[in-house]
Amino acid sequence: MAKRVVDICPEPVRPISPESIPHAPAICLSSVYQCDDPQHARALLLDEQSGYVYARNGHPNGDMLADKCRQLHGAERAAMVATGMGALATLVLAELAAGDHLVISNQLYGVTLDLLASETSRWGIETTVVDTTDLAATEAVLRAETKMLVVETITNPLLRVSDIRQLADLAHAVDASLLVDNSFASPAVCRPLEWGADWVVESLTKIMNGHSDVTLGCVCGSTNRWERIEYVLSRWGLSASPMDCWLALRGLATLALRAPQAGDNARQVAAYLESRPEVAQVHFPGLASHSDHALAQRQFSGQFGSMVTFDLSGGLAAAERFIRAVRSQIPFCPSLGEVSTTLSHPVSTSHRGLSDEALAALGISSGTIRLSVGIESPETILAWLASGLVKVH
Ligand SMILES: *Cc1c(COP(=O)(O)O)cnc(C)c1O
Q1: How far apart are CA 210 and CA 338, in angstroms?
Q2: What is the model's pTM?
Q3: 11, 153, 162, 393: most buried, per Cβ within 10 A?
Q4: What residue ranges line ligand 1, CB within 6 angstroms?
Q5: Does 13 have pLDDT greater than 70?
Q6: Strand, helix or coil at 132?
Q7: Could you give the dihedral angle defined by the CA atoms of residues 328, 332, 336 and 339, in that order, rounded to the nearest 10 degrees?
């Protein structure tokens, strides 16, 4: 009988020879690893021996990237999760249970608000939404059952800055932990654990990967709370894929160049927009006119991030004209942190579910445009903006 191809060469692909160490990290897509014998398998699965056995529990590309995230945030531990939302969900599942109370910022990313206010209520967790830039109001809603306080370092789209040190003190006074979503800052701008936060979450989908080709999140925290994190990641199946981790490791390699370039550009963009008559207000924590400027100077690395939001005085009609006029230079992409400059229109994307009153209370109008400033030369970006602004009337 004719032999099939698999009969002729049944042995698995040989591993890379131990004498030759690849300089670029290898991609290891394997979902499973071979065990020597039953004893070895048991030791691996019980974590008594280090090594990989099943990719949902860990793989080399995930560990390489998690180690970078851990170091960038000065954390004891870090783990990769399939998405930024997955990272937040991991903390909900690991840390909270029925009967617990959660306090969250009223300016969280909309999908995070859905997760932490609506989804958690199905599990018997009570959530209070508060303006966490008002420390007295925040202190007033924290109580003995409060398990966690959740804020973002820089909020969307008005770029308010959370006072992490003060919020950590308030949370710790009732034995709650402080979780900070740092996605709008990245560790190049802020390292929340150094200011007293207990947990940091990043959506690497945004600034940290920076190339719009991956969805990925990470959780950073401390060793004494880590067992539950690993258990939840594996049991709920939230772990990240090796290919995404490999791509994000490559993206992250240039964060130290991208972040200052984009940050310097954002500063110039904010100053320019502030000088333009078509613009009613510019929101950028690096501007002296921003309500959190002093806090941002204290808490940030000297950079203020790469997001700039501005309100066109002509409202929705002006926003529509501006967006259409710059479409081929500054694409309308409802994400952020990419190497090229993009824009979003909060009222029709991230904040579309909010009532007119809620939008007004937050200070968002239909003329509000959010820029994610890229690493192009500043002259180019200013010229694009100018070409759009002359079209708004
Ligand atoms: C995008 C984003 C998330 C969610 O991240 P995904 O990777 O899209 O799941 C969470 N928080 C903030 C602040 C974000 O901008």
Answers
A1: 4
A2: 0.95
A3: 162
A4: 83-85, 109, 112, 152, 181, 183-184, 203, 205-206, 215, 217
A5: no
A6: coil
A7: -10
